[in-house]
Amino acid sequence: MGRVWRCGPFLLDRGRPLVMGIVNTTPDSFSDGGVNFDPRAAIVSAQAMLAGGADIIDVGGESTRPGSEAVPIVEELERVLAVVRDLAAGGAVVSIDTRHATVASACVASGAAIINDITGFSDPAMIDVATSCGAGLVVMHMQGEPRTMQEEPHYEDVVAEVAEYLRARVATLVAAGIDPMRIAVDPGIGFGKTTEHNLALLRRLDEVVALGYPVLVGVSRKRLIGELTGLAEPRDRVAGSVAAAVDAARRGAAVLRVHDVRETVEALVVTRAIQGEEVAR
Ligand code: HH2
């Protein structure tokens, strides 16, 4: 599928793993507990991530942690728009993490270059937004919906089912006229999956990579890391998160969605140098 991911005016080179820094402009995200609810704080955090080597900033105004309640769309929009506009105006590659077409469309009009939809563009209105702009698209797999998704996730073969879901969603987008070079896929770690399911997806990531699209992996500070390390507080899960990100990169992930940008970038530089790649010092 080529070495670039086409995201609006940006052609992101996939020659090395891209790092996507997470900025949740929410009061209730599991992972950063509301530190970026204030737009000014969110912008300052994003700028620190860019200085730390982030290639993309993913802005989200609705927590999708297990058990979370939906946020009214006007409120979601109010939370994200000023942040998206400010960062995009400064030249950053901004991704909007939303499942709502109105939010996606307003953010793209304000400069967002990527639409990150945890519902895999299952809403036809989201496909309309996607066809009417040139933004990059992240198509994620989720079983169920955030409020209830962790109640009883079930699969016969989680990796085969997730890969098949992503293949079919991508086929729908391409049939709607979307340039395949704009599309990335994501197995949706933690979205309707047990720890065993998540580990299988990470271990067999090559089966998702084989779809031929850039693969985004978001494992940062998630419950899986907490369960493996015994760390209850998401902010303490940095080392486990970096290990998972580095492992995903080695297995072919093209984009790593992380809270701890500087730590992830440093780890990637070291592992790439050991593999004999030329890295900037
Ligand atoms: N994970 C979260 C949110 N959006 N988008 C993609 N593409 N992939 C992911 O794995 C993913 C995502 C959940 O993490 P976070 O944003 O840290 O928390 P919250 O949903 O509580 O805001």
Brief write-up:
The protein is α/β, with parallel strands linked by helices and 281 residues long.
Structure description:
The structure is a single chain. This protein is globular. α4 (124-131) links the parallel β6 (114-117) and β7 (136-140). By secondary structure, it is an alpha/beta fold. The chain has helices at residues 39-51, 73-89, 101-109, 124-131, 158-175, 195-203, 205-209, 223-229, 238-250, 261-274, and strands spanning 4-7, 10-13, 18-24, 56-60, 94-97, 114-117, 136-140, 183-186, 216-217, 255-258. α3 (101-109) runs parallel beside α4 (124-131) and α9 (238-250) packs across α10 (261-274). The longest helix is centred in the middle third of the chain and has 18 residues, at 158-175. The model has no long low-confidence stretch (mean pLDDT 95). The strands form two sheets. An eight-stranded parallel β-sheet has the order 8-7-6-5-4-3-10-9. The chain has a two-stranded antiparallel ribbon with strand order 1-2. Bound molecules: 6-hydroxymethylpterin-diphosphate (HH2). Residues 22, 24, 26, 29-31, 60, 63-65, 97, 116, 118, 138, 140, 186, 188-189, 216, 218, 257 line the site of 6-hydroxymethylpterin-diphosphate (HH2). Residues 22, 24, 26, 29-31, 60, 63-65, 97, 116, 118, 138, 140, 186, 188-189, 216, 218, 257 line the site of 6-hydroxymethylpterin-diphosphate.
